[in-house]
Design brief:
alpha+beta, 9-stranded mixed β-sheet, Double-stranded beta-helix, 4-stranded mixed β-sheet
Length: 446
């Protein structure tokens, strides 16, 4: 398999809300047909037209044409049945889209946009990426403390680092993940601007000062919700927030702009990595079936957790999200008002790539494996981000029968333990097999 970055445009798979125009119902531009409707004749009559003097002709209603036996009746019934079948199919599709994982993309659209991809070979190879022995998570960054600063565009493209800048319009959809861009929708500009306004308002509702822990990834406010498992937790649980913060998060999650972003992202995820998306769907569905108290932020999303980065200048330090599924993807959506050709780039360190990252666009990356950061934006500009992800510990919890590693291992015999260790040693390669393979893309072999 070639390890590559690929630029591709992805079609939106979203459900638009439709409302009926008011003039359809206002009584002025509509006709009402009752079952007993009869047409009233004009009051003026022509006496010569009457066959009998002294009497006016009364127009009788035209009798209905009887249904003809045979083919016509069968055709009508077939049309009605076909209409009902289509309605049932639409309802089933809507019900499926409300289930875990979101709407399923059309195969022809997936193939079309994948074939249009512009491949970019990178020096990074996935096989040798740092990850836990079990293959569930990445490894913490040993140089985390040294990474707590921003790196400018000129510094990264200079002699010391030698990175390559990849221009991107934020729409023409990139694989080391995928820069999926945004839908071809005239209303998308307004949608992502409204999302940025929501996050700007949310930040103003935050009264607490930023702590050192808050600034692990950058100097900006954050809030998060969904399900986590890691960092010493004995079992998966919902993120713990204060009551005011819970109310704020519920308000953000209920906004149509974020619901549509989540739906589009999950659909694009399924388009580009159907096997990996299926793995998320199946394993995390088991988790929620086992414990219905665990709440995903969005029903239409394949991810179990969301972080809102509230800015006002969300510029991340170089970091890893090592707790996420090692071979999985994290979705990042850039929001705000900034010149993406001069700042706010996504920097992928192991790949030596700098990608222009315009507001309103989304990128899927293996955030547990590749160090990533942003370049600074100009004074007076704003940048926010909306991220979605799933902890690797959730998948481990499901695989181990909804119990800790220790409890699971204690329940196994010697032979079963050996088989478990063998599965762990193979999990990383099994995970890589779930990633999309673009055989027509040249590049270094894994």
């Amino acid at each position: 398999m070639a390890e590559v970055a690929v630029v591709a445009e992805v079609e939106a798979h979203s459900i638009h809300n439709t409302t009926l125009p008011t003039d359809i119902l206002d009584g002025h531009n509509c006709h009402r047909f009752d079952d007993n409707f009869t047409e009233t004749p004009s009051s003026s009559t022509n006496s010569s037209s009457s066959s009998r003097p002294g009497m006016s002709r009364r127009h009788s209603p035209v009798p209905p044409v009887p249904s003809l036996p045979g083919s016509t009746s069968r055709k009508q019934r077939a049309k009605v049945q076909s209409r009902q079948n289509r309605q049932k199919q639409r309802e089933a599709e809507k019900a499926q889209s409300r289930k875990f994982g979101g709407p399923v993309p059309r195969p022809r659209a997936t193939e079309k946009y994948a074939r249009m991809a512009d491949p970019v070979a990178t020096p990074n190879t996935a096989k040798h990426a740092r990850h836990a022995e079990t293959g569930y998570t990445g490894l913490p960054d040993p140089k985390k403390e040294q990474a707590r600063r921003t790196h400018g565009l000129e510094e990264l493209t200079g002699e010391e680092y030698g990175f390559e800048v990849r221009p991107w319009d934020g729409k023409t959809g990139t694989i080391i993940g995928v820069a999926i861009g945004h839908p071809e929708d005239d209303g998308w500009e307004q949608l992502h601007q409204h999302a940025a306004e929501c996050l700007d308002h949310a930040r103003q509702c935050c009264k607490a000062k930023l702590s050192e822990e808050d600034m692990r990834r950058g100097r900006f406010w954050t809030c998060r919700c969904g399900v986590s498992h890691g960092g010493g937790q004995t079992h998966p649980r919902n993120f713990s927030n204060t009551e005011p913060m819970e109310n704020l998060l519920e308000s953000l999650n209920s906004q149509p702009c974020f619901q549509r972003l989540a739906s589009f992202t999950s659909s694009a995820f399924a388009s580009w990595a159907p096997s990996l998306h299926k793995h998320y769907y199946e394993e995390l569905s088991k988790l929620q079936d086992h414990d219905p108290s665990l709440r995903r932020p969005f029903d239409s999303s394949a991810f179990m957790a969301t972080t809102y980065n509230l800015g006002p200048q969300t510029v991340c330090f170089r970091h890893l999200d090592s707790g996420n599924l090692a071979f999985g993807w994290c979705a990042v959506t850039a929001l705000g008002s900034f010149d993406s050709t001069k700042g706010g780039h996504l920097v992928l360190w192991e790949c030596k790539l700098i990608i222009e990252f315009p507001p309103g666009s989304t990128i899927l990356i293996p955030s547990a494996l590749i160090h990533h950061s942003n370049t600074p934006i100009a004074k007076g500009e704003t940048r926010f981000s909306f991220t979605q992800y799933a902890a690797g510990g959730l998948f481990r919890w499901v695989d181990h029968g909804f119990q800790t590693v220790e409890a699971y291992r204690e329940s196994l015999g010697k032979q079963a333990l050996a088989e478990l260790d063998e599965r762990h040693s193979r999990r990383w390669c099994m995970g890589l097999e779930k990633l999309p393979r673009m055989d027509w893309v040249p590049g270094p072999d894994v």
